[in-house]
Design goal:
The protein is of the alpha/beta class and about 300 residues long. The protein has one domain: L-arginine/glycine Amidinotransferase, Chain A (5-stranded Propeller), CATH 3.75.10.10. Helices cover about 25% and strands about 20% of the residues. It has 9 helices and 15 strands. A 3-stranded mixed β-sheet has the order 2-1-15, covered by helices on one side. Strand 10, helix 5 and strand 11 form a beta-alpha-beta unit. The longest helix is centred in the first third of the chain and has 19 residues. The chain is globular. The two termini are about 25 Å apart. The relative contact order is 0.19.
């Protein structure tokens, strides 16, 4: 089963409100104060420590001071790692997020941590054509069944979805999803999370014409569906992530706000697929509009041969 036990996290240096993403992210708030960056750093360290304590191998690298990258804490949008050694660099909608793409991060993974990168697939040039695909924010990947779920938005371009599916031999399940105000949900991974044998889904956000198709794809691939509502969507329940631990067990990583929003029956259902591991991320969620899953880039790369 392809469930990562190693994740990359980027320690924030200039976390704060990003005006370049606010228009398409209804989950972030413009309200901020001077302590936001400091509080986000505290929350970041707490999340990293919680995952480490749970048995996840957490690799932490520092954000750069210049240029300012207020969303660098969310690395899953600019890169994805694949078991054949490929790394994808994605085209980002916000100009100030493009500086998050750092080859030194990849070099460090090779030299310091022993991972093997066979190819860097760089799609950043599509930004010149106003075509965007923001990593595993745009794409929720069922890596075991090779299915890619994606809700359309200004940050998720149909043509790039097709290119991804062709490049990595995935079956594509595109659909439209909206929040309560009928605004397109900016990233798929806030309304859906797919694990080994389950999926957390906000079904009421999916357009009626697409809903049967999406649910059938999940069920036909053997997923137990744990349905969440809009209120839980806004509490970032959909932004949970199943991870493996170093001893082979499973956890479900999520924020404390998300865990508190779950009903008892949902906690029971989720717990069948992994122990719930939470950390408070209130500032990161409120100001950045993303939660636990957005902060984690799962590393599926092979290790370099020691011979």
């Amino acid at each position: 089963m392809k469930t990562a036990s190693t994740v990359l996290m980027i320690r924030p240096h200039t976390f704060g409100v990003n005006p370049q993403t606010a228009a398409s992210n209804a989950f972030q708030s413009a309200a901020a104060d001077e302590n936001v960056s400091h509080q986000a750093l505290i929350e970041f360290e707490g999340a990293a420590d919680a995952l480490k304590h749970a048995g996840v191998n957490v690799i932490v690298m520092d954000d750069v001071a210049e240029p300012p990258t207020p969303d660098a804490i969310f690395p899953n949008n600019w890169l994805s790692f694949h078991a054949d050694g490929r790394v994808v660099l994605y085209p980002m909608a916000a100009p100030n997020r493009r500086a998050e793409r750092r080859l030194d991060v990849l070099r460090s993974l090779e030299k310091e941590f022993g991972f093997s990168i066979s190819q860097i697939v760089d799609w950043s040039a599509y930004e010149d054509e106003e075509m965007f695909l923001e990593g595993t924010g745009s794409l929720v990947l069922d890596r075991n069944k090779k299915i890619a779920y994606a809700c359309r938005s200004t940050r998720t371009h149909d043509q790039l979805l097709e290119i991804f599916a062709d490049e990595f031999d995935y079956h594509l399940v595109p659909f439209s999803a909206h929040d309560r105000d009928r605004q397109a949900i900016y990233h798929t991974n806030v309304m859906m999370s797919v694990g080994d044998n389950f999926a957390v889904v906000c079904q009421e956000s999916i357009d009626e014409i697409d809903k049967p198709y999406v649910i059938a794809a999940l069920r036909d691939s053997g997923k137990v569906i744990i349905e969440i509502d809009y209120q839980q969507l806004y509490a970032f329940v959909g932004n949970c992530l199943q991870l493996a631990t170093t001893d082979g067990s499973r956890i479900i990583a999520l924020s404390s706000q998300a865990k508190a929003a779950l009903r008892a029956d949902q906690i029971k259902a989720l717990s069948e697929h992994g122990r719930l591991v939470d950390a408070p991320l209130d500032t990161i969620e409120r100001v950045g509009g993303g939660s636990m899953r957005c902060m984690l880039a799962r590393i599926f790369l092979p290790k370099r041969s020691s011979s």
